[in-house]
Amino acid sequence: MAARTAGDAEKPWWLRGNHGPLPDETEGFDLPVRGRIPEELHGMLIHAGPNPPRGDSPHWFLGEGMLHGLLLRDGRAVRYRSRWVRTPRLMELNGDHDDPDHSPANTNVVVHGGRILALEEHHRPYEVTSDLDTVGPVDFGGAVRNLTAHPKICPRTGEMLAFATSDVEPQLAYLRFDSDGTLSGTAMIDLPRPVMMHDFAITSDHVVFMDLPVVRDPQAPGGLPYRWDPDHGARLGVMARAGGEVQWFEIDPCYVFHTVNACEMFGRITLDACRYDSVWGTSSNRFDVPAMVHRWRLGLGDGSVREETLFDVRCDFPRIDERLLGRPNRYAYVTTLVDEETGSVSHGHRVVRLDLVVGTSEHHHFGPSRYASEAVFVPRHEDAEEDDGYVLTVVYDAERHGSEVVVLAANAVGSGPLATVTLPNRVPYGFHCAWVPAGV
User: Largest CB tally within 10 Å, which of 66, 90, 121, 382?
Assistant: First the structure.
């Protein structure tokens, strides 16, 4: 059970226990390690999440962003550092939510064009240094007011493919950036109404958008201006990566926060994602039933749709070997979202390796009162096979109210940790993690 502190009972769930914010930025060097850190791990694990400095936020998704970075080198945990992303929102220099620079920058981190970007989908990205110091907002030459928190970096071309939605216009902007970060193409897509579109997928030749029934409603209860509307319907839109007409495929109503991957073969697109039957039916502050990994097969020639649930594992935050993004992959790594001690929908105790070809799974359970975050795959070297590498995750230990970074062998997740790094403070529950290789 998650640790509780004085006054927790009076706070909403996203401000207590390990959801609760840290009061200060921190730093530590030469951190203690149990086991052995593989020497191939030369880079930094960055964990992004909300950490409202004034101890208050109307919703978990809206707290100002803090980045937590663990630098690994030569088999050592060289340094841990936590830093807020210094935006006008954090610094109280501007209270206008519609200002594109007024970002919490709390959701995800990606590396592109030699820059480390902290993202949140309603505003511009923020560039940070390898020391997690804030450089400033990135507008890509004035062309971008907001950007999805889940852009895709094509491993074949180096392009960054992304989209941006509007809070008021029922419209979707698709954006392509060259490998150096230069905007190279845009396309506008009309939607029936504004929806919450958090993620999308790419293949070798197409992009796949998700028009799902979480619709914008400024009067919706729960702290976010979105609610579930089963009458909206659900569909997937396929468009050529270069732009053009969108082919829409009607699917069973659902919601998807995160895709696993997509690929195409013989005129058919396969999309895997973590699928929720529904979300936010009564309030955007309640998650009733976690997702399961689901597959859609879309026939580009005949417009057919086939869908099935692949695994009976309640999970989200899927990650793959990013070198296979947009191409066929066999393995995915997910984190369970059920607290097995209370039965509640929450962070879970397991990281699970899914074999998407055979249909088997391998679990690592971190133990009672220990909760995992998103698990990031890092290849052993640049030419390694798909499953030859390591999985890193931040684990919260509720018994001691502290956090660790755990390293697992990607092809033997169930065998237990290769190394465990004790951090100088807990890391509040957040959203996504990124591996930044040395030299970026």
Answer: 66
d(CA 12, CA 25): 23
Q: What residues pair up with 187 in beta bridges, in sequence order? A: 174
Question: Buried (b) or exposed (e) across 284-297, using 16+ Cβ within 10 A?
Answer: bbebeebbbbbbbe
Phi, psi values for residue 255, rounded to 5°: -135, 150
In this structure, the chain runs to a length of: 440
The tokens describing 119, both together, are 């993202």
Looking at residue 342, its amino acid is T
Q: How far is CA 207 from CA 178, 243, 260, 326, in A?
A: 16, 9, 14, 9
Contacts of 121 (CB under 8 A, 6+ apart): 107, 146, 147, 148, 149, 150, 164, 165, 198
Place of tokens 């929720």: 276
C-alpha torsion angle, residues 202, 207, 210, 215 (rounded to 10): 110
Residues 41, 72: contact at Cβ < 8 Å?
yes
- List pLDDT tens digits, range 85-123: 999 989 886 667 679 999 999 999 999 999 999 999 999
Q: Return the CA Rg of the chain.
A: 20
Kindly report whether the global pTM for this prediction surpasses the value 0.90: yes
Give me the residues paired with residue 215 across strands.
Answer: 195, 227
377 near 320, Cβ under 8 Å?
Answer: yes
Amino acid identity at 14: W
Are the beta carbons of 80 and 28 closer than 8 angstroms? yes
- How high does pLDDT run on average in the chain? 95
d(CA 356, CA 121): 29
Measured at the alpha carbon of residue 439, what is the angle toward residues 139 and 185, in degrees to the nearest 5? Answer: 30
- For residue 273, give both structure tokens: 């994602």
Structure confidence by residue, pLDDT tens digits, 199-230: 999 999 999 999 999 999 999 999 999 999 99
Pairing of strands 115-119, 126-128: antiparallel
